[in-house]
Amino acid sequence: MPSYIVTFKPDTPQKEKDAAKKTITDQGGKIGHEYALLGGFSFELPADAVSTLDANPHVQSVDADSEVKIQ
């Protein structure tokens, strides 16, 4: 399954983040690492199911997880 990182809008209540996690696991996905500074977490989910999370009004962005390099 592809890996993604979701970030939430500032001031998103924890219960909304927990609901998003439940949506992911209910669709067969797995929650990965929590990113406190980004206000989000990584997850694995089939690509065709990501649009459900992307449509959440509390979600700021959903991006494919990839390696980042600093030169």
UniProtKB/TrEMBL annotation:
Pfam families for the chain: Inhibitor_I9
Domain Inhibitor I9, residue spans: 3-71
Family: Belongs to the protease inhibitor I9 family.
Name assigned to this protein: Inhibitor I9 domain-containing protein
Native source species: Sporothrix curviconia
